[in-house]
Amino acid sequence: MNVWYSRPVFFVESVERSIAFYTEKLGFTQGFRYEEEGKILVGQVNREDCEIILNCQQPEKTGRSRVFISIDLEPLKTLRTEFENRGAPIRDGWWGYDTMIIEDPDGNQLFFPYRKDPEQESGPVSGS
Q: Which domains does the chain show, CATH number per domain?
């Protein structure tokens, strides 16, 4: 049996700026990076089982990526509070569920759905 291993690729203007955003605002760690002549062309950030490749080599695709990340409700509430405390740009939206949306400096998006908890009424969850 083969096991799939996949990672989204986010196209960005500056991999260095993006690594700073993901590590400082979202608590990721820096994974690999590939440089040429002192410029980072490709890098990766990691948090838990989420790995995102950052690439600045296709500027026509910058800011057009999205990843949908499902987390159980209680850890998601805790994560939202952490993101708020880090100053991450959070907005609430809808994408089949109430959704916490984080947009990086280039416009790439991380969607975190709030799945309905049977004991919770409908509506967005607020961490503040």
A: 9-114 (3.10.180.10)
Contacts within 8 Å (CB) and 24+ apart, 81-84: 81/127, 82/27, 83/25, 83/26, 83/127, 84/127, 84/128
Looking at the predicted structure, is the pLDDT value of residue 26 above 80? yes
Q: Report how far apart, in Å, the C-alpha atoms of 109 and of each of 26, 37, 57, 64, 104 are.
A: 12, 29, 19, 8, 6
pTM value? 0.87
Return the residue matching tokens 């799945």. Answer: 115
Which residues pair with residue 95 across a beta bridge?
none
